[in-house]
């Protein structure tokens, strides 16, 4: 049995990664322990039910079991959460939608103009875009240069003069011409973008601010996407566009903590959305002719529209597997004309709670994120309707893919394997693809042309999960410390949880007996051709089996949507199975 490790009640250090890790452990662990789950420490185990992964690792996604596990962070969320990824996605989406909108049948489609919500941006890793930037740059303008995949304000600097532009151009060109980086691209510095600085931001009592909101992808099959309110972040110092101190331009807590005034004034660096709304009502409503509660109505709606368009721009490219979920931090700025700008999107948003507002906001966001991820996961497994969602409290639904093409095919990295449960069964389902997986396509085609006989009564039922061994009420819940990181992301520990039945004093030694196993406890196998309805039936969807091509032994798999069972002629005794989590 793995040793248990107690989580500190509240441990914060100066190191950002340690601070974030400790706080995330606190909120994630408190949630999981409240569900009766426990932590395990063996980082070689793959039989977790929930893994909160701050830093993405390739082997984490390789070993992920779709439809059985929950994993935080979609593997290619960089399409949204890197500067270049978001820029490319919005450009491509705008180009495609502009082309579609010219059609008379698509005149009703409304797409936000990219220039109306996203600051003018150029890629510095592309020569033609560097030259375009030099053409549009003028002295006395302010541009902000950012690495594509960094956060916390790291690597950011301002460009104000022609000399700085020339120096930047020479540096970027030297990197592009360096033969070492051409041979070993991953050793090259991060690619950068340069973005027009919003020179006229709206100020709160003379201080610059932005708003952190949340985009939650609670389920990837089907997509269930939500908007969540966050908080306003303010600088400690009064806004001065001429200052070279980045803490006066960047509002994040990492930058503000560098000020000696932070300890005394940290509560003023974060405002709740209600406080922001009240301030706008009192200071700007009449002067600017704004509607009442502009922050909670017009501004909120605009953020939702922008976030939805960003998601739609990458929707077809995201890796969607049942069990993936993601929480993305979205940063918005309001200018003095009350125009809303999207600054960037961030993966693994900060969950620290170093002030009172964050202590109220962050736990609610984390708990509802996990509640929605669990509920949508189970409903998708059981092919139930997603709406209404009992766990939905503060998040607002932006997009539901429930009515889209379903079921969807999935790409398998290995032959089908039976469903693995937290309590290991005494024997597993027969893997019908194991023998054919290593054969040539010709041999597989020859076998598919032969008539397949139904199994004899003496055979073990094919495709059926066998009765498990005794239920062990004790299990563990563990953290993993990744040894490798993705470039541009800070090193931080992942968190991995194994969910099993919670210990109970009245738990009997023998598990309960159920005459019919639930569909999500059965192996996901495809139907074999058979003319006898005594042997084959569709157990999950109550629908006609799909048409099978003459040269195909198996159809593409559809996760948790298509189940096929083979039974012998004699009755099968009732199965014993663990309670679903």
TrEMBL record:
Pfam families: TTL. InterPro entries: TTL/TTLL_fam, TTLL10. This is Inactive polyglycylase TTLL10 isoform X5. Gene3D superfamilies: ATP-grasp fold, B domain (3.30.470.20). Residues 434-515 are annotated as: Disordered. It comes from Phascolarctos cinereus (Koala). Residues 481-508 have a biased composition (Polar residues). It comes from the Eukaryota. The gene is TTLL10. GO terms for molecular function: protein-glycine ligase activity, elongating. Residues 444-454 have a biased composition (Basic and acidic residues).
């Amino acid at each position: 049995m793995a040793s248990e490790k107690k989580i500190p009640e509240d441990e914060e250090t100066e190191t950002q990664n340690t601070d974030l890790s400790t706080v995330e452990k606190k909120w994630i662990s408190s949630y999981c322990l409240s569900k009766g789950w426990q932590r395990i420490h063996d980082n070689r185990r793959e039989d977790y039910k929930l893994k909160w992964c701050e830093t993405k690792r390739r082997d984490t996604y390789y070993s992920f079991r779709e439809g059985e596990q929950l994993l935080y962070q979609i593997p290619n969320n960089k399409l949204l959460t890197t500067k270049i990824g978001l820029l490319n996605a919005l450009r491509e989406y705008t180009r495609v939608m502009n082309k579609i909108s010219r059609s008379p049948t698509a005149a009703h489609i409304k797409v936000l103009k990219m220039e109306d919500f996203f600051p003018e941006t150029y890629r510095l890793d592309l020569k033609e875009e560097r030259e375009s930037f030099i053409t549009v740059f003028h002295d006395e303008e302010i541009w902000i240069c950012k690495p594509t995949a960094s956060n916390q304000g790291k690597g950011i600097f301002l460009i104000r003069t022609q000399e700085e532009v020339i120096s930047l151009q020479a540096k970027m060109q030297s990197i592009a011409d360096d033969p070492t980086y051409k041979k070993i691209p991953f050793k090259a510095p991060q690619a950068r973008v340069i973005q027009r600085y919003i020179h006229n931001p709206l100020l709160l009592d003379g201080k610059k601010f932005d708003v952190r909101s949340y985009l939650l992808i609670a389920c990837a099959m089907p997509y269930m996407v939500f908007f969540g309110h966050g908080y306003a972040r303010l600088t400690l110092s009064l806004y001065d566009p001429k200052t070279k101190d980045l803490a006066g331009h960047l509002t994040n807590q990492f930058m503000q903590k560098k000020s000696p005034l932070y300890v005394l004034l940290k509560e003023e660096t974060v405002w709740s959305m209600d406080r922001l709304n009240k301030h706008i009502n009192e200071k700007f409503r009449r002067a600017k002719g704004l509607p009442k509660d502009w922050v909670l109505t017009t501004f909120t709606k605009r953020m939702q529209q922008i976030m939805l368009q960003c998601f739609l721009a990458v929707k077809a490219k995201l890796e969607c597997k049942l069990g993936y979920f993601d929480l993305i931090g979205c940063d918005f700025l309001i200018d003095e004309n009350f125009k809303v700008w999207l600054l960037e999107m961030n993966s693994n948003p900060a969950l620290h709670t170093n002030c009172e507002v964050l202590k109220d906001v962050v736990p609610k966001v984390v708990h509802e994120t996990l509640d929605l991820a669990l509920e949508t996961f189970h409903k998708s497994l059981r092919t139930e309707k997603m709406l209404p969602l009992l766990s939905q409290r503060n998040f607002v639904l932006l997009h539901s893919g429930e009515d889209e093409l379903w079921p969807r095919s999935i790409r398998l990295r290995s032959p089908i394997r039976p469903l693995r449960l937290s309590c290991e069964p005494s024997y597993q389902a027969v893997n019908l693809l194991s023998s054919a997986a290593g054969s040539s396509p010709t041999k597989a085609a020859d076998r598919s042309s032969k008539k397949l006989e139904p199994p004899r009564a003496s055979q073990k039922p094919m495709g059926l999960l066998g009765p498990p061994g005794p239920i062990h009420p004790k299990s563990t819940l563990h953290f993993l410390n990744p040894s490798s990181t993705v470039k541009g992301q800070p090193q931080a520990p992942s968190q991995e949880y194994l969910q099993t039945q919670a210990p109970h004093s009245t738990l009997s030694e023998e598990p309960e007996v159920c005459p019919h196993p639930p569909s999500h406890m059965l192996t996901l196998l495809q139907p074999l051709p058979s003319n006898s309805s005594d042997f084959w039936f569709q157990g999950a969807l109550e629908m006609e089996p799909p048409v099978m091509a003459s040269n195909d032994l198996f159809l593409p798999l559809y996760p948790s949507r298509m189940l096929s069972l083979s039974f012998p002629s004699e009755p099968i005794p009732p199965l014993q199975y663990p309670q679903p989590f």
